[in-house]
Amino acid sequence: MALSSPATGTADSPTGPRPTRGLLPLLLAGNTAMYALYIGVPGMLLALQIQAIDPADKVANFGLVSGISAIFATVFNPVAGALSDRSGRRNPWILAGGLLALPVMLLLGSVHTILLVTIAWCLGQAVMNIYQAAITSVVPDRVPMAARGKASAAVGLGLPIGSTIGALLGAAFSEHYRTGYLVLGAIVAATAVLFTGCAREERMPPKAALPVKEQIAAFGSALKEHDFRWAFIGRALLVLGYFAVAGFQLYILKDHTDLPAGLSPEEAVAILMPVNSVAMVVSTVLGGWLSDRFDRRKLFVGASAVLAAVALLIPAASASWTAMLAFSVVNGLGFGCYMAVDTALVTMVLPKAEDAARDMGVLNVANAGPQIVAPFVASLIVSLSGGYTALFLVAAVLSVLGALAVRPIRSVR
To answer: Does 411 fall in a domain?
Structure first.
């Protein structure tokens, strides 16, 4: 059963909303701000804050905070998507989530215990996933099928650019993390205002309220569709491997990598992120464009997932600074292409256009769900093995399994 046609209904229908002029730059800006916070906070500021509170148990505490807060991300993403589907609007949810990011970041920078850090970052995950669920649904809502690769590339470029901004801000405010939190929250809030002010939307017909039992059942209905289920599995496996390593990057540089004399781990992050981002930009643009040109999504998704696995073998084989630089380049090439093309693939296997936000929210469980497991799994592997080499190897295996998961998809080449 071909699932791609229903998923294009809103953007391609003659009576549906036409894509907004200038939408792609706005999607780039909106996703850049989101990833700047996602990388800058847990990748740098949160890790430093937790280390300052309890340096002896930083790995276990960081895993605990990251895992519990990711549960909130998993819950709020599909719920917020379903609410925006029901309201027939995306912009108000983007605006609300973006504006709420600022006071929540203020709260996060003001607390001084692991318990309060956990609560504050849970709130941060909640509001950011309200924002994410709505902005993720803009592509299937407003972009024609033929342009999905380009639109997904614009979305995908937000990751390397946002990652660089987040890492540089995290390094710049490493000794003043409260100010860093505020800056990142302000960027998201300002971008939400920009996006909703410039990206006009035509209101879709609101959906009638369903009983709670039917709403819960509806969340899982998309996973009954063969192609969507395999896309979900593939994304979950690769993201699990990616975040098992990425979430502990600062600690890997502190405790695993042989850094050159005079180079601090925080400065190393600020170097690695731009290197990774340049590679990711190149592969995101080329991957999105080539997948449109050749109409081959599965090939690019599978190959890029395998390349991400190869990247993880480099720091497993060597703890040198050169190996980490090589890892950043190869990882950027693989992950950038994967996220750009896999996002396009996913929009083509959505079961129903009218449930686009809800089903994209369900898919985002494959992004947020593994983040629940990854910190616990990573901290357990590091504790049992006494280092990070085994973590790299496990993550590589997960990436290969993610590549294999796209093979059973039938409706997309």
So the answer is: no
Q: What is the DSSP letter of 341?
A: H
> What distance in Å separates the CA atoms of residue 80 and residue 90, rounded to the nearest whole number?
10
pLDDT, one tens digit per residue, over 186-215 is 999 999 999 998 887 766 665 555 555 665
Is the confidence at residue 82, as pLDDT, over 80? Answer: no
Q: For the chain, what is the mean pLDDT?
A: 82
- Per the CB < 8 A criterion, the answer to whether 35 and 166 are in contact is yes
Q: What is the per-residue burial (b if ≥16 Cβ within 10 Å, else e) of 25-43?
A: ebbbbbbbbbbbbbbbbbb
**At 293, which helix (H) or strand (E)?**
helix 265-294
- Say what the pTM is: 0.70
| Contact predicate 82/361, CB 8 Å | yes
Residues 227, 341: contact at Cβ < 8 Å?
no
Q: How many domains is the chain built from?
A: 1
Q: Is the CB of residue 289 less than 8 Å from the CB of residue 154?
A: no
Distances (CA, A) of 45 to 66, 131, 194: 13, 21, 26
- For residues 211 and 226, give the distance between their C-alpha atoms in angstroms, rounded to a whole number: 26
CB atoms within 10 A of CB 92: 13
pLDDT score recorded for residue 10: 44
In a domain, 10, yes or no: no
Joined tokens for residue 33: 């701000």
DSSP bridge partners of 320? 258
pLDDT (tens digit per residue) in 103-154: 999 999 999 999 999 999 999 988 998 898 888 888 877 777 777 777 777 8
Indicate which CATH number applies to the domain containing 31: 1.20.1250.20
| Residue 276 structural domain | 20-405
User: Residues of the chain with pLDDT > 70: what percent?
Assistant: 86
The answer to whether residue 5 is domain-embedded is: no
HSE (CB half, 13 Å, CA atoms) of 103? Answer: 6
Q: Is residue 340 part of a domain?
A: yes
3-state secondary structure of 388: coil
Give one word for 18, left, alpha or beta, with left for phi > 0 and alpha for psi -120 to 50.
Answer: beta
Q: What is the pLDDT of residue 177?
A: 86
Which of 13, 80, 73, 32 is CA-nearest to residue 277? 32
- What region does 350 belong to: left with phi over 0, alpha with psi -120 to 50, or beta? beta
Asked if the model's pLDDT at residue 368 lies above 90, the reply is: no
Q: Which two structure tokens, joined as six digits, stand for 224? A: 């009954």
